[in-house]
Amino acid sequence: MSGEDLPDVFSKEFEQGVDKRCREVCLPLKDNRNLIGYHYTQNPPWHPQAKSFDAWIDDITKPGMAGRTAWIKLMRQIYGSTDRWKEVYGIPIDSWEEIEHLEDPLRGYVYKQKHLEDRKAFMQRICERWYKVHHDAIRRYDNNHLIFGDRNTLHLQPLPEFAIRIMKPYIDVLSVNVMGPPSVVFGVLEDATRIWDGPIHLADTGAGIYLGGLPKSTYQARDLHEFETVYAGMMQMGLKHPQIIGFGWCGFYETPHPGGRSGLVDVTTDKPLPDRLKVVQRWNEWMRSKYEDSQSAEN
């Protein structure tokens, strides 16, 4: 979720587009017993420091767009009168309707802090609309599977409290991406778990053994021993942390060339990487035995 031309979530076209996509994807899968649930996208720019926070707002508040109408509605709600709005934005208008035709009413402002607070407030409206439209469309065609919402990369982009509060009625599981050993993951999750009390899926986590340049979003293991430390730690963390229901290991299957990522298969040969495969098999078996032991204890 970055770049320009992000969707105008207030428009009928957005609602219809999401409905069409969910009808195509979710309806055929609604009775599939192997499916766990659905994600929307990755890293919506809810935080003001996010790369596309301002771009999204600016894109959907152009003249004639539904987002412009939603912005004016919010301004009326916040300021009450055009005179108070003019004090903040410094644009001479006599009626709210005039804002509909202004070229760029968000550009000019007198009070920077109030302008930023207005943008944050508008992003909350975008967030609410985003989650409601996706939730309603999925549930229209599939009542049987979980809604995981968006994958939020918490170690790169904090998730504002308002986003977690807004998404609560619309998702079943909070999905987060956090790279690194459990000590890092536990720390990053702390802020989220103070607000979110439901299940958490570590949608993208792990460590890679790199030969080339390291992407900023990934954690680099020094060697196979550290690779195992992180993988084993995720398994152990899943038993210790009351909210974590599972994790997705980043690049689990194939290792892109030139090599040295997180996967278990060499993409150039399609052959398993036996040293890594043994690590994963060993700890998967450990987890299976733990569950069997717990079930025996219950019986």
Secondary structure blueprint with pairings:
Layout lengths: L11 H14 L11 E6 L10 H8 L5 H14 L2 H8 L22 H30 L4 E8 L7 H7 L6 E4 L4 H14 L4 E6 L18 H17 L3 E6 L4 E2 L9 E2 L4 E2 L1 H25 L1
Parallel strand pairs: 1-2, 2-3, 3-4, 4-5, 6-7
Antiparallel strand pairs: 7-8
Helix content: 40-55%
Class based on secondary structure composition and strand pairing: alpha/beta
Which oligomeric form is depicted?
Answer: single chain
Number of helices: 9
Radius of gyration based on Cα positions: 23 Å
Low-pLDDT ranges: none
Strand order of the largest sheet: 1-2-3-4-5
Number of strands: 8
Q: Return the string of H and E elements.
A: HEHHHHEHEHEHEEEEH
Strand percent estimate: 5-15%
Average of pLDDT? 90
Task: Identify the overall geometry.
Answer: elongated
Largest sheet: 5 strands, parallel
Distance between the termini: 47 Å
Q: What's a concise summary of this model?
A:
This protein is of the alpha/beta class.
Overall description:
With 299 residues, this protein is α/β, with parallel strands linked by helices. The chain has a domain at 1-34 and 44-143. It has 9 helices and 8 strands. The strands form 2 sheets. It has a 5-stranded parallel β-sheet. Strands 6-7-8 form a 3-stranded mixed β-sheet. β7 and β8 form a beta hairpin. α1 (12-25) runs parallel beside α5 (112-141), α5 (112-141) runs parallel beside α6 (161-167) and α8 runs parallel beside α9 (274-298). It is elongated and about 70 Å long. The protein starts with 11 loop residues before the first helix and ends with a helix. 30% of the residues are buried.
